[in-house]
Automatic annotation (TrEMBL):
Residues 14-32 have a biased composition (Basic and acidic residues). InterPro entries: RCHY1_zinc-ribbon (IPR039512), Znf_CHY (IPR008913), Znf_CHY_sf (IPR037274), Znf_CTCHY (IPR017921), Znf_CTCHY_sf (IPR037275), Znf_RING (IPR001841), Znf_RING/FYVE/PHD (IPR013083). Residues 1-34 are annotated as: Disordered. GO terms for biological process: protein ubiquitination; ubiquitin-dependent protein catabolic process. SUPFAM superfamilies: CHY zinc finger-like, RING/U-box, Zinc hairpin stack. This is CHY-type domain-containing protein. SMART domains: RING (SM00184). Residues 131-195 form the CTCHY-type domain. Residues 53-129 form the CHY-type domain. PANTHER family: RING FINGER AND CHY ZINC FINGER DOMAIN-CONTAINING PROTEIN 1. It comes from Brassica campestris (Field mustard). Keywords: Metal-binding, Zinc, Zinc-finger. GO terms for molecular function: ubiquitin protein ligase activity; zinc ion binding. One of its GO terms (cellular component) is nucleus.
Amino acid sequence: MEGVHFNHFVEQPQKTDREKSEMLSPHSRNEETESVILELEAAESSLKEVLDRGLMEHGCPHYRRRCCIRSPCCDEIFGCHHCHYEAKNNISVDPKQSHDIPRQKVEQVICLLCGTEQEVRQNCTNCGVCMGKYFCEACKLYDDDTSKKQYHCDGCGICRIGGHENFFHCYKCGCCYSILLKNSHPCVEGAMHHDCPICFEYLFESRNDVTVLPCGHTIHQKCLEEMREHYQYACPLCSKSVCDMSKVWEKFDVEIAATPMPEPYQNKMVQILCNDCGKKSEVQYHVVAQKCPDCKSYNTRQTRG
């Protein structure tokens, strides 16, 4: 058998996918890559179409969302926790039946597109739609309108709006304030954990803008504006001035100087308490107002005399 060669009978090893790919021309490889990219983009587009079905078309008066909640306290269905509050905690409800919803204990939601009731989650288990572009599992909050810049504050324990970068949490006041007030606001313990002194809405969970007065008390911005429209410039809780009143006090000086008291009252002295600085003093009585000798404010009250 000398001189006979058998190499052409030997079985050649199979090439791997990687080796086959390397054997393809650059043009073929580019076509294959583009094909894969197109398939991924099509799949992503299809998924987005499913998730965004009904976006901004559903919800309640308080939120644009694609689900409603089953209340754990009364086992009824509501658009959101605010809807529950309006239905179960207003003045027309029997006080024995009135109650708040423990929002963190909500366990079931109902998809508004397919009607499937399910455990709290962002995407529907049945039709796959996203029930809220913003979703907070802690608060059980859904909202499609992300222009509000929602964020969850661990200190408050609830979601806020306006962007996390624009607010800070004051642990003494127990609430979030604008970053502009970080080093200037007067701290009042539990400042937001009470009702607005004008409209009596609970400020901590209010969806309306809240402002901090110079005294540290809080109030709805809209309510403060209404106070000013009616020439009310004192805090409804402590009576301190809510803004710089120095120009007004100058007008009081002019008016008092132009209005001398009758002779029997010219030497009458009275005791006053200044609402702005808290000082007590004895001053000459005048029918227009009494001026605090310490801070020069006319925001005073007569205590004796």
